Input
Amino acid sequence: MAERSGSGVLSAPTAPVGHAGAHSAPQGYLRRYVFSTDHKVIGLQYLLTAMFMALVGGGLAALIRVQVAWPTLAVVAPETYLSVVTMHGTIMVFFVVSLALVSGFGNFLIPLQIGARDMAYPLLNALSYWTIVPGCLLMLLAFFVEGGAAAAGWTAYPPLSALAEAVPGSGLGQTLWLLAMALFIASFTMGGLNYITTILNCRAKGMTLMRMPLSVWMFFVSAILGVLAFPPLTAAALMLLGDRHLGTSFFLPGGLVFGEEVLAHEGGTPLLFQHLFWFLGHPEVYVIVLPAVGIAFDVIAAHARRPPFGYRISVWATLLIAFLSMIVWGHHMYVSGMNPLVGEYFSIATVSITAPFSVLGINLIASLWRAKIRFTTAMVFALGIISVIGTGGLGGLYLGTSTSDIYFHDSYFVVGHFHLMIGVVTLMGTFAACYHWFPKMFGRLMDERLGKLHFWLTYVPMMAVFVLMHYQGLSGMLRRYYDHSMYAFQAEGIRLARTISYFAFAAIAGQLLFLVNFGWSALRGRRASENPWEATSMEWNTASPAPHGNFEADPVARRGPYDYAPPGSRQDFAPQWTA
Amino acid sequence: MSSSPAAPAAAPGRGLPVLLALAFVACALLIVLGVWTHGRMPTLASRHGASIDAVIRYLLVATGILFLLGHGVLAFFVLRYAGAGERGSPHASARTEWRWALVPVLVMCVLAEGGVLIVGLPAFRQLYVDTPADPWVVEVVGKQFEWLVHYPGADGMFGESRAELVSDARNPLGLDRKDPNVKDDVWTRGQLRLPVGRPVVIRLRALDVIHSFTVPEFRVKQDLIPGFLGRTQFEPTRAGKYEIACAELCGLGHYRMRGFIEVQEQSEVDEWLSDQDPAF
Amino acid sequence: MKPILLTLPFLALLTSHTVPTGPAAAAPRGDEVGIVRGKAAFQGEAPRRRKVDMGSDPACHQLHADEPLRDESILVDDKGGLANVFVYVSKGIEGKFTPPTEPAVLDQKGCCYAPHVLGMQVGQKLVIRNSDPVTHNVHSFAKKNKAFNQSQQSGSKDLEHVFDKEEVLMQVKCDIHGWMSTYVGVVEHPFFAVTKADGSFEIPKLPPGEYTLTAKHEALGTQKTTVTVAAGGTVETSFSFAEQ
Output
């Protein structure tokens, strides 16, 4: 049993999820584990759903890599390839990363870390999950309809996405995509509102905003960003549905010709969609990256036995990043024909984000200064995150600077960059969270050896894949191409394609290893105590796994969330709930 | 200290920290080295392209230094602070924290923002705002999945195009044969001839979906947006053959929407043009 | 004698570029039905046949290295006969007709569709073949039927489609090779023809009656005329097209 100073005693039952106090009547299996309103169950449901969708998204990734590296095999037709690429992107961004990190861990951690018994609106929480399930189903259904799944890219630019005659996936497939996205946005909005309300209103006594862990801060900012940024996408989706089915012309100009016939649309512009999409699209990447950064801070603090460097500064930097992220979307549109003066503004603004973002980077690294690092799997993933953020983040400068972006736009440089940032950083953040908070979820520990192997099979291959893509981009190779071999200028880039694919298969195999570890450990992993990492934040103030109702007595926050190496103390940590 | 049996061992071996530190250093070195061995850009063939290359070279140096530095420090800390042992107090004063926050802000303001303001934007302006004198003007129209090239002919005036007149086989541009300016117009499927050493302005239109005109050797990329008359400009500096590729997903043939550019002396271009069939 | 005669349309289907009429459900006796014959003519000087620019695909260009393909949109012979006019009975036919079991075949050869105009029946199978060394994209711009848009790699298996509504003329285009288009006339009955190189056409085995004949050309519009067919008789008619 961990020693404790001061009061705040909790017994530490190691029994699985009980119902300490909250309900008098016993609940059936369905009510407890399927239609639960307990944020922990919902968080886990999100996580498991994301894992399932990751199998689909990962399978699509494997298909892409086979096609790109061995185009003569023609494993899929060109039109199918576009559906594969589109759905890979859509599923991964929204139904895997956002689902696992923001919805999964956000749900699980926020009430525990702020000392609340559940979210402010538990029923709304359940509703948000059950809204996403039909969203997932609709997305998957699209593969089986006439014309196949949406094929206009995850960015769904009209007119390609608006007109069924433009590409087969723009038939029923694109409509299903839009409906599934509408469900996703509804779900995310419900969740976001829940997070914001909970964090503002349900914190335990003594838990001021500046005593919240950085992970909670990041979920908070992420939720605000999401709630502000999604509505324009909702509008764009509705308008696109109108253009597709109701004869409107929001995004369609006059003079479109298909099959020697001029379409009846008139008066719209495709650029409007781009603005609406990217108005969400850019903040969205911060919505998913910031929680990963917050988790990294939490994990590093606990396993390096020192508080994060520059806690308050990190909070301010994050708020600045969030604000700036909403006014830089045009860097996705430098070559779209947008007014060049506007392009210049966007370039200046975009590059300014590097300032607060590198503050976070410096703070992450400085959080290792004079640390006593325990190289647990969670810690190793957190360290890897720092490396990947540095790599991907610096690559962003080439794209944010409008002049160089002319060369790199729509090349593999972009693909490499965004995968590092919203693929690898976020996935590694999810993994760090899994290994670190597994005891709180299941009362057990994940296997450390398999975990370390998982790390190496993630960090090395994924860095290889996406850094090599930067080189492909430098040599001029373009994205979303079914086959690059027809172009002399892409020959240089193609030379790397097979190497990338082999590394990608290794990375995918590594993730299967993780799933095995996760499943096996949940059932048969070594039992964990209440606070196996000797961490300080409030979620460790309860049994492992955390029971229904979270805490025995109402918790009180008596110090900051990261009181490691407290001066003058024999112990190297002072938990938040101790005086 | 914790006596929980489930906590990790208090004194792990040096293996993992060493491996990690090595991995971070190797990663940084390999990535920087890789730019030399694998990051070759196609040979530059346009005048303004030099300024784009200058921005990229600047960024490679600036980010390269920051990258090596960052990973170096990371690797050092991983080794130095592995495991338990005597350290000084890890607590930093608020002033220290602010000072170290100022460092990345200043560095980024100078290197990143400075790069944009001093190196990047002047080049951007040159590309987009400046208008060249006496350019060779040609129109490229994108349609699934071809680049239709439209030359205005000796009169320098483009004959009018109308969507209703489009006939895929005979008149894919929808040129109006009643327009007198059309008489000397020439159009081709994907054959773009440009004079070397003379500024070129290309009008860009799209008939169905968004396409994007790109020629990596020229460092040119510009979207063709339906309903919008776009343009791009550059000056080819090397005679030779180049390819046009599409850089905006436009349908199932996106990967093979290929055009062919030949840059020659103006006289050769004129001669070739005079050999082509007129529009009607 | 009759069985041999009946095989001729099948052979014609497989070997020629013009489209024969499909066989009717039951073979009527020669003296019970009539024939409509005619000619489509082009008024004025035959437009110049532009060389087809295959510049966007060197592989296609190679296939015509010796002799460039010329535009097939308006094909007029030296006597003014207009080829590739789709002629069919648009009014007056009663009853249902079973579609032929033989498929209508569209081939892609030399980066060109063969035939340039194809007639077929509702419910008849359309087989699309790629005999070229390049990938094609068969995109049908059907308005009444279900449109389709598929890639077809060189040497891959034939595509198959069936149309269930009458539609004259449906453009089928290769989006990759923009000059490649064919026009398909899908009719509910077998009384259609495509004019030959000299502009002539023949629609045999018509039951006696009054009919509206529609002639449609891909670029020159539509003409209509009425004919009265007598049992055992032949009706001569003609269409005249001009550039607009």
